[in-house]
Amino acid sequence: MTGTTARRTVVSIAVTAALACVTACTSADGPTDSTGATDRSERSLRSVERATGRAGSARVESTTVMGRELSLSADGALGWRDGLTGTLTITYTGGTTAETMRRLGTTAMEARYLPDAYYARMGDEFADRVGGRHWIKYVYADLEGLGATGAGFAEQMRDTTPHQAVKQLLASDDVRRVGEEATRGRRTTHWTGTVGGATAQTVDIWVDDRDLLVKKVERGRSETGELSQTAYYSDYGVAVSAERPPAADTADFKELLKAQESG
After folding, report:
1. Which of 64, 148, 176, 250 is most buried by its number of CB atoms within 10 A?
2. Distance, CA of 190 to CA of 181 (rounded, Å)
3. Average pLDDT over residues 36-60
């Protein structure tokens, strides 16, 4: 692999790491600033939005499939009282991108979320290509400066909280209550609706008797096939923390992009 090709591959993997962090726990892309719900549905969902928001943190388990490109699982805890914080372990389970990352020695990644940026820890082989540094730092403000795509990444990363799904259902024109169902041994109320965005997606949530999300499922289509995610939430109010990795072991995503452009 030539030096230029190696640098481009490193940046490609860095972009993939960003995408993995975004999709591991985010809600489907779509409007959240308008209300399409009926009055009765809106009252119920507003209660869920408030209760989930007040809880401030939760443990998260999720699986995501992005067509033929990537599938992954995520496990950890996230908080959202004073900006997004928390840590997730993201494991690549299949897809063409996962195969590329596996060849570069990365099969799983630790993602640390802080209010101004998030950090992704890559494997040793990746680190060898960027001066021995294992972590990639993504500053939200820098991502916003990359145009619409970067701004979308930054916004979605900051919105990695369970009540985002509720906001989207509130904007849905066809939201409806499906009924009561058992979810992981708990009695829950099932809601469903279609949300907008680049392509229409279906969002389903299951809510317990405390108005807290227990489960979320999103389904849609992408250019590479089916897009789906299933997430479970538990232990609301759990203590959450995330430390910044050592600066000497951290590569800045913006600097990696510059290296690619100058390469």
Report:
1. 64
2. 7
3. 90
The string of pLDDT tens digits covering residues 135-179 is: 989 888 877 666 545 545 555 555 557 888 898 899 898 999 999
d(CA 32, CA 197) in angstroms, rounded, equals 10
Q: Is the pLDDT of residue 28 over 50?
A: no
Distance CA 74, CA 200 (A): 24
pLDDT digits (tens, 9 = 90+) for 70-102: 888 999 999 988 888 999 998 989 988 888 778
Q: Comparing C-alpha atoms, which of 232, 185, 223, 184 is closest to residue 204?
A: 232
Tell the residue number behind the tokens 């997004």, with chain if given: 84
- Give the DSSP H/E element, type plus range, for residue 131: none
CB atoms within 10 A of CB 141: 11
Residue 205 has pLDDT above 90, yes or no: yes
For the cut 50, the answer to whether the pLDDT of residue 130 exceeds it is: yes
Cβ-proximal residues to 137 (8 Å cutoff; 6+ apart), any chain:
117, 119, 245, 250, 251, 252, 253
